[in-house]
Amino acid sequence: MKELNQFISTGNNSQPTSTDTKPTDTDSTSLDYSSQNSSAASVVDPSTPMTPEKPETFLTIQNVVSTVKLGCHLDLRAIASKAWNVKYDPKSFQALIMMIRKPRATALMYKTGNMVCTGTRSEESSYIAARRFARILQKLGHPVRFLNFKIQTMVGSCKIFPVNLEKLALTHRMHCSYEPELFPALFYKVMPGVSVTVFASGRASVNGGRTQADIYKAFDIIYPILCCFRKPEH
After folding, report:
1. Residues 50-103: pLDDT tens digits?
2. Quick check: 138 and 129 in contact, CB under 8 A?
3. How far is it, in rounded angstroms, from Cα 36 to Cα 43?
4. Which of 26, 30, 73, 108 has the most CB atoms around it within 10 Å of its CB?
């Protein structure tokens, strides 16, 4: 479970050592996603200091995590022996790990037929990657189906300006969790299920949103608050 949480929070930056496994699926399936990039209008006090740049210009989606049910049990040992770019060590982790390059993604496949797809940077890329993983398993002889595809969480990150975390934690103690002796970042609960992790250097990440709109909305809320605790630049 620890390894799975690491995949979800950071994505997987490792690259496969060779081209995709035997199938090179060019599945033309696409999703008609509604536009979810529009940011909700943030409520900003007139006295709140702002920077010339708009927040949307430097916030990027770093990882999208999705799940899908494949509708059959998987023989993970057989898959590991036939497919490329896989890792399977049942003694340390119960899932088989498979990677592809286009789009760059990593799948965690369980013998029950559940699959977690992580590492992509958009909802559409996550869908395409999940479809290609399923197609690979089909070509390896598994009667898989593509059921209940769902985006579970997204992670967006940016680099803004140095922040005084001590003052922020004192002023917004009802929404913050900050224990520098255990972890150097502050956790701020912005919306139900969505939090922002802020480092003193200005590195911030938005976690828990299920759509890009959730990520941008949370950042629109936290950005004017962070501006109030901006450290002076030397």
Report:
1. 444 554 447 899 999 999 999 999 999 999 999 999 999 999 999 999 999 999
2. no
3. 20
4. 108
* Cα distance from N-terminal residue to C-terminal residue, the chain: 43
**CA quadruple 106, 188, 185, 39: dihedral, nearest 10:** 60
Please identify which residue in the block is written with the tokens 């003193």: 200
Please count the CA atoms within 13 angstroms of the CA of 208 that sit on its side-chain side.
14
Whole-number Å distance between alpha carbons of 197 and 186: 6
State how far the Cα of 24 lies from the Cα of 106, in Å rounded to an integer: 16
Own/partner pairs, 103-108, CB within 8 angstroms, 24+ separation: 103/128, 103/129, 104/15, 105/129, 105/133, 106/7, 106/11, 106/12, 106/14, 107/133, 108/4, 108/7
* Residue 12: Cβ within 10 Å count: 17
Which residue stretches of the chain are H helix? 2-10, 76-82, 123-139, 165-171, 212-227
Q: Beginning with the edge strand found earlier in the chain, give each strand of the sheet holding 194-199 in spatial order.
A: 86-87, 96-100, 105-109, 114-120, 60-69, 147-159, 203-209, 194-199, 185-191, 176-178
